[in-house]
Amino acid sequence: MSNSFVIKGLRGGVAGGEILTGVDLEILPGEVHALMGPNGSGKSTLSHVLMGREGYESTAGSVTVNGVELLGLETWQRAAAGLFLAMQYPVEVPGVRVEDLLEAAMRARGSQVDGLNDRLISEAQRLAVRDEFLTRGVNVEFSGGEQKRAETLQLAMLAPSFAVLDEIDSGLDVDALRDVARRVKAMTQEDGLGVLAITHYSRLLTELNPDVVHVFMGGRIVTSGGPELADELEVEGYDGLAARLGIEIPEPVEFNRADPFSHRTF
Fold first, then answer.
1. Distance of CA 34 to CAs 27, 114, 127, 155, 169, Å?
2. Using alpha carbons only, how large is the chain's radius of gyration in Å?
3. pTM higher than 0.70 for the full model?
4. Any bridge partners for residue 69, and if so which?
């Protein structure tokens, strides 16, 4: 199916070790899929491999967005093809305003930038992003909640086909979580955005109302179900679920590798 986000047999990780051990997933326009799993299971690695982050590699499989193969493309080319990543830890970009960033991204893919400022102000109001944050460098002196609102603002303005949200709920208070989740949900309904939401917490799912919940262990999806699967996890935990499925949770894979995103600025 051409209008879809399809992952087939994806394997990969970082230099020196395989973390993803065969990921299969298909998301259609307008669908919300939640990905939950214990720490160290490879959820964030999946997001980095999908987006082509430096230092991460795919060793087998296929990833397509609307029929376009992403593996082998540069990160900006994957974004131009219609994939967006909201990072778990957004970085600061001093001296570059959100509007500057958006204009550069839109021009790079040949999109119209006429009326960009008006659209940005309107979207910022919808997400309760204060004007002062639009004039600062991207994420400079933003709180965790402000960073996630700004990420969601960029998502809404760029209007990709599919988005990977890597723990977009981390660091959010109740009000910010509601604003971010409801805006994302509105994009799925109004624009047909397909979403892969990586999270530890069922509170995000209460707002997003996912179509499918996947459990990720040992670098792969081990089971999938409806929203009730998240409720089951709340009760029995990952150990209980693994025991019921008759699988063993592997120890987290750790590598001694410098992480450029551990620093708050470029």
1. 11, 35, 22, 18, 12
2. 18
3. yes
4. 64
